[in-house]
Amino acid sequence: MKRYSAFAIAREAFRFHSGWERAWKSPTPKAEYDVVIVGAGGHGLATAYYLAKNHGITNVGVLEKGWLGGGNTGRNTTIIRSNYLQDESAAIFELSRTLYEGLSRDLNYNIMFSPRGVLMLAQTEHELRAWKRTSHANRLAGIKSEMVTPERIKEIVPIIELDGPRYPVLGGLWQARGGTARHDAVAWGYARGASDRGVDIIQQCEVTGIDQTGGKITGVQTSKGAIKCKKLCVVVAGSSGILADMAGFRLPVESMALQALVSEPVKPVLDCVIMANTVHGYLSQSDKGELVIGGGSDGFNNYTQRGSFHHIEETVRALIETFPIISRLKQLRQWGGIVDMTGDRSPIIGKTPVDGMFINCGWGTGGFKSIPGSGWATAEMLADGEPRNLAAPFTMDRFKEGRMIDESVAAAVAH
Amino acid sequence: MLMLKCPNCGVTAEETEFAPGGEAHLTRFASGSEDQAFSDYLFARKNPRGVHFERWRHAFGCGKWFHAARCTATLEVFGTYTGQTSTPPDDITAAVKAKRPEWEGFK
Questions:
Q1: Is A304 in Cβ contact with B52 (below 8 Å)?
Q2: Are both A275 and A320 inside the same structural domain?
Q3: Side-by-side strand order, sheet with B65-71
Q4: Which residues in chain B show pLDDT less than 50?
């Protein structure tokens, strides 16, 4: 792999940019792999990358139905934060955020990580107490976050209206080291790094069946033929239920649409990420100037990657009360992604009832921020055959054993 | 935006008038049952891409629960029916079968 650098740009400038090579290879699938990963989104590619980099396992195939990074990785609102309440979540999300800080250098690919700060508004007394509790939990977990007063919030976000009649801003939880990153670049960077280390990324290769003998995984049937494997890891977010059905078990997961929208581009008005959970809305401003706005997920099972208009309306209606300046902006475009929601709003990383088949799913509405940590933990599990400390709390058994990692209540809504 | 007809009061309305209630026709396991059965009743879901039977409540209307058969891949509603049943009635399954000949039937 030719490294990207300032020198490389200068060199290519003198030869009509003829020397750039493809960022990742497009091989034909081998007959057999040690590990097959289904799904070339951020989590699948990060898993492949860390399998190769941390564990030296390079006989890996990543199968993708569409194109890499074309699902939720390309549809989220790119927020990165780690101020979670529960210790188990804090560990994996903080690892993730830490990895994001050094990811551009690690991958030699500019993922445009922007630690611009994430501010979670408290707009009810209940929420204020909840964020105080979270800030104490964060301190115990070694995560830097702090409670800020309305006056400080006005300094951080001058466009905010603090005294809204229905939702006055009473305080906020500020994580200065949270922020955003370029979501496509995260997928592309991991793909390039994994491909360089010998991982086969096979796009437009849909898994149509899962082969098992005596309860043990032997391979997968795909639109490009049968592929054998020793270990199989399913990392397909909203489509997890379909793959689980192929393998003959059920997941504690429901697939729903989560929508987002961007406004027309405007001059810089907002230089951090705002989450207003009471009103189900969050926004940030992209480098192009568009306000990137997300809301809550639609309430019913849905695989269509589109949601109901009234959710967008509710989100925007509430946000313009706290940010009156955005009330006249036009919506540029709107889209939806299919998120896999678990009962406790925490992910599932672990084994499945089928021997040799592993799963990473259930990230729900919080998948992007967790890509590096999730890939790291899943790679550990695939290398050892057992989840290590980071992933161990997130096994599917927790629903049976009643040890939920309850971020549902902790996050109030948006996650 | 879904359009649903409430079989209790006969009103056809947009989905904002209704509240979704998740997968229908679950077998209830409570205290005294096996851990796995109780856990599956609470959490494990079919979550199909295609025909889905689900519960809805006419929250901003008559307030009563009912069932709907809907396609999660296209959002097409095949029909709604009474909440007082543990399996979809024949006319609903026939309506689904007419639109989705490959559908394997209610399981």
A1: no
A2: yes
A3: B19-23, B51-57, B65-71, B77-82
A4: none
A299 to B52: CB separation less than 8 angstroms, yes or no: no
Mark yes or no for CB contact A245/B73 under 8 Å. Answer: no
Among the partner residues B43, B47, B75, nearest to A343 by beta-carbon distance: B43
The domain in which residue A36 lies consists of 28-78+183-252+344-410
Q: Both tokens of residue A324?
A: 């009156």
A346 touches chain B (CB under 8 A): no
Give the number of residues written for chain A. Answer: 415
Residues 6+ apart with CB under 8 A from A211: A217, A218, A219, A220, A221, A226, A228
User: For residue A377, is pLDDT > 90?
Assistant: yes
In terms of CA atoms, which chain B residue is nearest residue A305? B73
| Contact across the interface for B43 and A242, Cβ inside 8 Å | no
**Mean pLDDT value of segment A141-155:** 96
In a domain, A123, yes or no: yes
Cβ-based burial of A152 (10 A; exposed 0-12, middle 13-18, buried ≥19): middle
Q: In whole numbers, what is the pLDDT of chain A averaged over residues?
A: 94
Tell me the pLDDT band of A410, cut-offs 50, 70 and 90. low
Nearest CA in chain A to B35: A400
Give the pLDDT of residue A409: 60
Here the CATH number for the domain that contains residue A50 is 3.50.50.60
Tell me, yes or no, if A303 comes closer than 8 A to chain B by beta carbon: yes
Helices (H), B1-107: 35-42, 90-99
One-letter amino acid of A75: R
Tell which residue, A349, A35, A324, A313, has the closest CA to residue A194: A35
- Residue A285 confidence (pLDDT) above 80: yes
Residue at A103 is within a domain:
no
